[in-house]
Amino acid sequence: MRHRYGVAVLALAALLAGCTADPPAPPADPTGPSASPAGLPGPYAAWAAGRSTPVVDPLYPQHGTDAVDVLHYGLDLSWSPTKRTLTGTATLHIRPVRDAAAVTLDFKPYALDGVTVDGAAAQGTVTAEKLVVDTPVKAAVPVTLVVRYHGKPSTTGFPTKRGDAHPLGLTVDAEGGIWTMQEPFGAFTWYPANDHPSDEALYDIAVTVPKGWSGIASGTPVGQQGNTFRYRSTVPVASYLTTLAVGRYKKATATGPRGIPITYWYRSGDAKHLPVLKKTPQMLDWMERKFGPYPFDSAGAVLVDSPSAMETQQLTTLGSGMAERGERSFHLNTLHEYAHQWFGDAVTLTDWRDMWLNEGWALYVQKLYEQDRFGLTDAELVRASRELDGVYRKQYGPPGDPKPAEFGATNVYTCGAAMLRQLHQALGDGRFFDLARGWVQENLHTQQTRASFTAYVNEKTGHDFTPLIDAWLDSPTTPPETGPLPAGQ
């Protein structure tokens, strides 16, 4: 994500083809004996890759639930620019985690046009950003929930004190288009969701728009029928990493490393930013050489009316306001969001205490790229890194202890990146990039934690880096500088 971290960046710088069929229909008997190795019966086995272990977030317990695991979302959406109205049918394939008298999900108060569970009508109510469907469910017995709804989108509050913040979720622009950014939550402003990164799911999204408009969403493009645009995610996606945009867009395409299809969506006024976007193949190639293959079937970016940016999976969401800050800044910020496709998207945090795990990696990758492409020296990187670490650690505290009211504070970016720089210095290039590449490629499409990262570092390197990691994540002051490991360690 790029909101507040732009301040740190500026300071440092100063130094599948065609349309596919719809998902399988819900099973007539979801309790039947035929089960997949993942324990999912009948057709639900098709969404086994979406199985997760949801948790209650320690920072934002009001969002998400550990009671259900959504395996798959089928979203059929229609946007009317003249009426400013979103109409949707959301089909959720859900694995209940425990017995419950109702299913509760995050959702804004749209008007409900109908709710069914396994084809039978059910009573649903939406209040206080929660959808409650009064139907009993049993642990490990999957159900299919269908919610039909319509209404005018509204955003939700952003829990931060940063000066560049704007409300989260689906935003309507002056021309009647829509776009969304939703970290740490906000997907529920356009579809019913278990809106927490620990519950990743598969997605099929269809967006119907008026003639001359484009419907854009995260996932791999799988075709267009008339005015309906379709996208599919066959690997799990966290809800905050989904995206939706509708507008009078133009489309440009390219090919990335190993033939990866790349799509750029832009409006007429955004054409001046295309030269940077068209560097995407080179950016991806640079990162593949460092961190292993790009982890998805497609890539690209959509430009929206925002001063910020977001690492939405397979299709980054870039604010045109951010692009106005200069070509070098836009180039580096775009690289940062692409870095998240490895660090944050392919390997996702389990809860929001570990935002440093996403942002520290993405910022450090950005600084390595800045060294390689823009001549940032080691001395400049070290000096700025330590100076900024001290400033932000004093202002916001250590990155391992983020505050709920200060989401995305600069310490999780800069202090996390400083810790990785220290690891890099200790290990040297060869062992560090083996570590970074292995962390992604050996943990693809999983949710990870501080504990699992520390364990992986220690196992991969054969050295106990727990004290170093703990110091950088927990100390109220910048830890002392250390050098390379002694030979043989």
TrEMBL record:
EC number, UniProt record: 3.4.11.2
GO MF term set: alanyl aminopeptidase activity; metallopeptidase activity; zinc ion binding
Any one GO CC term of the record: cytoplasm
Keyword field: Cytoplasm, Hydrolase, Metal-binding, Metalloprotease, Protease, Signal, Zinc
Cofactors named for this entry: Zn(2+)
Cofactor note: Binds 1 zinc ion per subunit.
One GO term of the biological process aspect: proteolysis
Residues that coordinate or bind Zn(2+): H336, H340, E359
InterPro entries on file: Aminopeptidase_N-like_N, Aminopeptidase_N-like_N_sf, M1_LTA4H, Peptidase_M1, Peptidase_M1_dom, Peptidase_M4/M1_CTD_sf
UniProt name for this protein: Aminopeptidase N
Record organism: Micromonospora krabiensis
